[in-house]
Design goal:
With about 290 residues, this protein is of the alpha+beta class. The protein is about 35% helix and about 15% strand. Helix 4 packs across helix 8 (about 190-200) and helix 7 packs across helix 8. The longest helix has 16 residues, at about 40-55.
Length: about 290
Amino acid sequence: MLDAGLCNYVLVSYGHNGRSSDSFLRMMADMGGDDQVFGHFGAASCYALAARRAMHTFRTGPETWKHIAVGQRKWANLNPRAMFQRQPMSLDDYYNSRMTVEPFRLFDNCLISDGGRAYIVTSAERARDLRHPPVLIMGTGQHNPASDLQTADFMTGSTGAKKAAERAFAVAGIGLGDIDACEIYDCFTYTVEITLQDYGFFGPGEGEEWFKGGTIEPGGRMPVNTSGGLLSEAYFMGLTPLTEAVMQLMGRCGERQLGPQTNTRTPQIILCSDNGGILQTHACHILRRA
């Protein structure tokens, strides 16, 4: 946990990495046994189970998730690195995509990518001598409600996001109103919804109203996943949202750059998330322009 007075510098660079980590493969292997008899195996089916329950408890569903999938695709269309840079998506495209694991359609699922991301952390003092402007870590928090999905008390929420964000905001000394954009771990569209809900941007059942009207898109009042995210840029786990936030705050995002270029606020503070263990672990980071 960072001390409130500690500010570090984060610099993006690119490298090559394998497709899946050993720990992730082990987690997938553990989803077996009796569960498989009922078709419950793999991350998609587990998140789909959480999303199906949320459709009942939060009155959410595809009417909310379509705005996330389509909105992030619009950002990807501005990103030359994105896998879907040349493929726009309409609401009809979303609804017409095939079911993968109900209630998820194809475009509710993240991509499978081969490549890599990296970032460098150093002291603010050292950062003064480097070529790019620094990005500072204001606050960070973690919360892990359960180490194993089988021991979880819930599937829909609240997830670890709530307490992780409370800690991060307390360290940073700011509130939700100070956030200019969000880079959210988006393994599935529902993950984006429940994370932002637990962060406090809207209440249970209010997601559809909050997302509609282009809220997260270019020109929207709260840009989310401005690279296209895991859904439409590339899947590099938590590094996709984190490196995008750093590059946005450095002003290195070209056509998708937040500010006048995309009819949004010039970013000073960006909120980032990472999630794992089927909503059972969470990390929240708040970064700012130096």
